[in-house]
Hints:
The chain is mainly alpha-helical. It has helices at residues 13-16, 20-30, 32-55, 66-82, 86-102, 107-114, 118-126, 159-185, 188-197, 202-231, 239-270, 287-309, and strands at 139-144, 155-158. The longest helix is centred in the C-terminal third of the chain and has 32 residues, at 239-270. It is flat, with a radius of gyration of 28 Å.
Amino acid sequence: MNADTGERLQVPSWLKEHxxxxxxxxxxxxxxxxxxxxxxxxxxxxxxxxxxxxxGKPMFLQSIDPRVKLCTLLAFMVFSAIxxxxxxxxxxVLIALLYARLSGLGMKDYVRRVWAYIPVVVLIFxxxxxxxxxxxxxxxxxxxxxxxxxxxxxLYFSANGIAMAVKLALRSGISLSxxxxxxxTTRWTKITGALASMHVPLIFISILNMxxxxxxxxxxxANSMMEARSLRTVGTLRxxxxxxxxxxxxAYLFIRSYFLSEAIYDAMTCRCFTGNPVSMIKLKVNVTDxxxxxxxxxxxxxxxxxxYIF
Length: 310
């Protein structure tokens, strides 16, 4: 009741409206991009917690010295890039899968994050290059028969072309597998500490550390902006409003990150930062690391010999 007029307060008419079609439109086209963007930002932090969960386990790769692990996994990645034998590449896939299993990684997450996206995309985009337009050989099947008005020589796929596409997909998946193993079984501070102990330029390590931290700082700022917009959104948003909001948000984040970088640098300078990162982690090679190196040297020797045998 209104105390002055004694009249009952009237509910606004727009609050009484119930239109399923409007609700569906608002959910699917009006605010759906907000929920999707929030989901993508949450995945950034989820991946960080996902890595920390596995890096702290007392398992196989987690117990190996970061320097030894970095050099060994990098050697496998380089070898996969120069290998031309599908059997050897498949053997490398099994090695990465075995290391993931011994390190306690979830096999479903491993396969989904490593093999379900980039290798599949590489395979799809390399299929046109596997045709007779680029790779000649014995035809397996024809897409266009010889004498076709579109292409007189015909268009076909050969065993060489298909093998080339499969090799590209396997190489990308293998490199991604060993990189994934390194990041999931090693904390970021240990990786940068290993790089520093291997005499990698300190400015390069500082850039890596700052970039890694800035990803989460800026993602957190963007996530807060999207949450604030989502909580204040009522009704249907037009596509033009969505584009305007995203462009303004990007500009604001750019300006905010610029001033934030200046403030962070001033704070670091006030705390006597001289440009040389300091690591509190003491790395030491033990017997397990030596056995790991010997085992992988034998594996690589076997794979190199297999390039000439198979």
